Structure prediction request, 156 residues.
Amino acid sequence: MEKTVQTTAFTRAAEIRLSYRNRVKPSERPQVTCSNDSYQVLKQSWDTGKMEFVEQFKVLLLSRANRVLGIYEVSTGGVAGTVADPKLIFAAALKACASGIILSHNHPSGNLNPSTADLQLTKKIRQGGELLDIAVLDHIILTSEGYYSLADEGLL
Prediction:
């Protein structure tokens, strides 16, 4: 007598795999010690053709020693904004085992001042980071001519 295996919704769960591969030796990773270091790393990774065209949101993922584990592009939006989903930000941070993150986005208009929405999002992500023991160290706003650091301005 053969047993028949019933296929139910409980046996159809997807398998989740997490992987993170870094081909750069820890000693060769850039170290972030100030907002200008963050800006220099981010500026090199930014597509200069998009800096003044569309808004993008990226996250710098850092080790406990503030060495750059990677840069995660969260979203690309339109001229006036983009969506930065906290779930995606923390999924990337957790996958990389980041101890700290630096949020960043560009303002195509060239205006360096943070908007109310920028400040609210930063606060929300900082609170989430506290629960996960992932420090939100800064939020950098970039333009083609410079940057604004919320941490330097005491807004973090």
About this structure: The chain is about 25% helix and 25% strand. Residues 105 and 133 are 23 Å apart (CA to CA).
